[in-house]
Amino acid sequence: MSAGAVAVVFGTRPEIIKLAGIVRLVGPEACLIHTGQHDSFEMARSFLDELQFGGPDVQLTVGNQSRGRQIGEAISGLDEYFEACRPSVVVVQGDTNTTLAGALAANAREIPVVHVEAGLRSRDRAMPEEHNRVLTDHLADVCCAPTEVAKRNLEAEGIGADRVVVTGNTSVDAVLDRLPSEDERRDVLAKRGLASSSYVLATFHRPENVDDPESLQTVLDELASLPLPAVLPLHPRTAERARTFGFSQQLSRIRVTEPLGYGEFLALAAEAAVLVSDSGGLVEEASVLKRPIAVVRRSTERPEVQGTFAELVAAGPAIGKQVRAWLDDIDAHHRRLAEIPTPYGDGQASANCIAAIRRVVAQTE
């Protein structure tokens, strides 16, 4: 890493997706630091390659361990690099352990922090992500808020307007850039033996749904009971929990796939009848793909799409009830959603974030 660089800190696949456009626009000034928060580097590598992310220039190995140890080891490793080669600015994204570690390490070295996707709030203190995003917002020198709702959240917490810029969400940029064409989507469906609007696409990885055997079994049973086949790309965390709990029979009733590349996943999401997930990123993507999503969570930090693209449901019979309600007239529902613009911007979020980053760099020179 060279002095004056823009250090981009990431550790998970969603961060790679949402930072890819920013990294491409920063160009050779970007120093990419991967903390290794998701311990399967080969999976991260495939996303880096597919999204033309480049790097990483620096590889840490915080791995699959407790939250406190991940954050602590990431701070220690980042501090070492920031001491050796001081960047002009540190860019972090979202609400992961890596996000908070990057902001804390930069703040300790008095390096400006830009937080991409700032201001999201679930008001759910049981979520580690809520603590990560709140702390990062208050440490950040510039908060790139994706929506006016996020901006108001920041203002309500006393974060001054001079530190906040509404940029849109970079997930929109990623979808518009990487969504396969109609012909390519047909090829993906053919390879999987699927037809458009004839299946439900599901993803699950959050502790509230997968770490407790009763909750995970309930989710899997609900997916298996849906009137359309459920396709479930199995997240490594969910796969490990299912093995531990002995849920091979439950998984056998669902069309389980390996974790998918981003383009193939977008193809399946765009052609699904309905999405069912606990992923915040997929909620945003659904608003671009114009597909309804049942969000299986206690709370949500994305209220902008509630009642249009998304409905919050509890893990249990509410999943099937909501999906069946949509499936009663799914074509008409798809047409209604197609007329609703995404609240997350026009695909220029990465460029808007770059403008904010450039302003910070100019102030340090």
Please outline the major beta sheet: 7 strands, parallel
Q: How many individual domains?
A: 2
Number of distinct helices: 17
**What is the radius of gyration?**
20 Å
The CATH class designation of the largest domain is Alpha Beta
Q: What structural class do you assign from the helix and strand content?
A: alpha/beta
Query: Globular, elongated, flat, extended or rod-shaped: what is the shape?
Result: globular
Gap between N and C termini: 17 Å
Mean pLDDT: 95
Strand content: 5-15%
Q: How many β-strand stretches?
A: 13
Helix content: 40-55%
What's the helix-strand series? Answer: EHEHEHEHEHEHEHHEHHEHHEHEHEEHHH
Would you kindly provide a written description of the structure presented here, covering whatever features stand out?
The structure is a single chain. With 365 residues, the protein is an alpha/beta fold. It folds into 2 domains: 6-168 and 348-364, 3-Layer(aba) Sandwich (Rossmann fold), CATH 3.40.50.2000; 176-338, Rossmann fold. It is 50% helix and 14% strand. It has helices at residues 13-26, 41-50, 67-84, 97-108, 128-139, 148-156, 170-178, 182-192, 207-210, 213-224, 236-245, 248-252, 262-271, 280-289, 317-327, 330-338, 349-364, and strands at residues 6-10, 30-34, 58-59, 89-93, 113-116, 142-145, 164-166, 200-203, 230-233, 255-257, 274-277, 293-296, 310-313. Strands 3-2-1-4-5-6-7 form a 7-stranded parallel β-sheet, sandwiched between helices. Strands 10-9-8-11-12-13 form a 6-stranded parallel β-sheet, sandwiched between helices. Strand 2 (30-34), helix 2 (41-50) and strand 3 form a beta-alpha-beta unit. The relative contact order is 0.12. The mean pLDDT is 95.
